Amino acid sequence: FRVLCPDALQPAHLPGVLGGGSGSHCAPPPGSHSLRYLVSTTAPRTRLRDLQVSAVSYVDDTQILRFDSDVVTKMETLVPWAKQMGHDYWKQMRNGLEGYANTARENLRFAIRIYNQSDDGSHTFQCFIGCDVGPDGHLLSGYYRHAFDGRDYISLNEDLRTWTVADRTAQITKRQWEAQNLAEFWKTFCETRCIVTLLLHLELGKEILDRSDPPRAHITHHPRPEGDVTLRCWALEFYPTEITLTWQRDGEDQTQETELVDTRPSGDGTFQKWAAVVMPSGEEQRYTCHVYHKGLPEPLTLRWEPPPWSPTGVIVGVVLLGVVITGAVVAIVMLRKKST
């Protein structure tokens, strides 16, 4: 099993090979910051020799780069302070990404073999690397985790010294990595290089990374075939991702009755989320949605408001009713004339 140690992750270089996406990791504690790398290697059906390697990297909730082995340009930087990082930094990162692509392909092929998986199926091997630092810039947590076909495979424990494997088959990798003292390498990486890179991004991108975009919130009303209704509370265009949406009925939390989706990227650097509750028709005014976010001076409280009364609609309705009544009267008169 090839060790996941691309050149750009060696202690002598700045890191930058593996990337981590928001929504795919646990959020760091309040006041802390995170650097995430996630690399994915995919094997299309019947094309085991043609493996694609892609990577993304995030500082907090801001994506800083993406990489795709199938694209000519390979790597793309996504932050305005990229030039300030220096040409050598991004050159090392690109070289490391390109070099790692070959290692990642071998890792996936090895996992397919030891799990006796069919070569003509589609498979995915993922590696997640990252670190969290506190307000003082010291390490809070380090990560080095792997998954095969969407399931846990092998991970470095919180002590950054020992491993946890998902099953007996993964023990093969665990024994090899213990013999190579690989945990010590990643412990050093998390405690030094990962922190150095994270703090550099935080310094150069402070204006963007430290911003707080408050959510734009509203409630939508959805009648259900069963006769009851769904109220959905939306929070849109907010940053960072940390947000809380709750529903209350007559002032009491409706935690168990609330359907809550994961926070999702909007595609423009902000995020969105919604929470929904179901209730009998006519009880909508008893429910309130509460939104808590760093960018709000105070929490929002929303109540669904029925569409405003429309005089035009009433007039049209009265006119139509008059037409119907007139037609009915005319029909009755004509029938009476025929009968006489």
Summarize the SSE layout with pairings.
Elements: E1 33-43, E2 52-59, E3 62-68, E4 75-77, H1 82-85, H2 87-114, E5 123-133, E6 139-148, E7 151-156, E8 163-165, H3 171-179, H4 182-191, H5 193-204, H6 206-209, E9 216-223, E10 229-238, E11 243-249, E12 252-253, E13 259-260, E14 264-265, E15 271-279, E16 287-293, E17 300-302, H7 311-339
Antiparallel strand pairs: 1-2, 1-5, 2-3, 3-4, 5-6, 6-7, 7-8, 9-10, 10-15, 11-12, 11-16, 13-15, 14-15, 16-17
GO cellular component, one term: MHC class I protein complex
GO molecular function: peptide antigen binding; signaling receptor binding
Domain Ig-like: 215-303
Taking all residues together, what is the mean pLDDT?
Answer: 84
Number of helices: 7
Q: How helix-rich are the residues, as a percent range?
A: 25-40%
CA(first)-CA(last) distance: 101 Å
The biggest beta sheet reads:
8 strands, antiparallel
Poorly predicted regions: 1-25, 310-316
Please provide the ordered H/E string of secondary-structure elements: EEEEHHEEEEHHHHEEEEEEEEEH
Radius of gyration: 29 Å
If classified by CATH, what would the architecture of the largest domain be?
2-Layer Sandwich
Give the overall silhouette: globular
Strand fraction equals 25-35%
SS elements, strand count: 17
What count of structural domains? 2
CATH topology of the largest domain: Murine Class I Major Histocompatibility Complex, H2-DB, Chain A, domain 1
- Helix-strand category: alpha+beta
Spatial order of strands in the largest sheet = 4-3-2-1-5-6-7-8
